[in-house]
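Following up on my earlier thread - several people asked me to post the actual chain instead of describing it. Fair enough. Here it is, all 300 residues.
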Amino acid sequence: MNAFYQLTMASLLGLATTSSSMLGAAIGLYVPFSKRPLACLLAFAAGALISALAIELAYEGAQSLYHQGYKAHAAWAFVSAGFAAGAIIYYSASLFLEKKGAAVRYVTQFREYALARKQADASERIKLLATCDLMRHLPAEQIEQILPCIRDRHLKAGGILFKAGDPGDALYIVADGKVEVLPSGLPGAEVHGSAIAVLGEGHAFGEMSLLSGGPRTATIRAVEDTDVLEIAKEDFDRLVATDYQLANAVKRISHQRAISNLSAGGTDAALWAKSQAEASIMSTGMRQERCSRRLPMAQG
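Reply from S.P.:
Thanks for posting it. Predicted structure:
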């Protein structure tokens, strides 16, 4: 009788243990649980299972070290250090994979991931533009308003962004890599000669022809694989017309660059001087236009 009772209890216990998964699946399919309590239940169950397994492994590991001659404190120190190292590696790997989108499973999670990536990219771009001579006077809020005007361009090493004589249709800012400024030559001629300037991250270029309305006065070639930010001429004109400090910064940099290019051996001094004169005239016209716009407002 006693043996039969023990056999019956063991069978019932085994049945309850092995059928728990089936019972849980049935409850999950037919009972409408809300997501929050269900997530808490699953997290608690997973934590309990992992903790039980970890404690058993830790005990067996410490016991094995103790039998090999380690003291009890030293054995538990080794086991604790292993658990801590594993937790750090797991957490770091999880963060890395989440940044790469590995945690994206549902539409809502994808939206959150896309929004976080967009905010991170915008923050990095604002930091880059804040180091640029043209925009370092602007607060982060105003730089953020310029971001929709910016397009990305990628140049392979040795690639030509534009040549001397091309129409000026955009302002460029180096985001990553380097470009070199080559002296102007005959239109359509092969690019040759040593660089008269090398521009790195945060440097703006291409403003001279935008201010003067004339063609490009130099050739830009990528020294290495380079990413540049492009602001179209229409957006550039609008930004300069509405920001007096930006207009002055553009004019100052254009003037300094013309002088440095000539000092470094740039050719066609008359072309540089003409571009600077036209840029000064256009800048003065923009300033007068801003004043004429402000005057009626001051009188009113």
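Confidence is low (pLDDT under 50) at residues 289-300. That should answer part of your original question.
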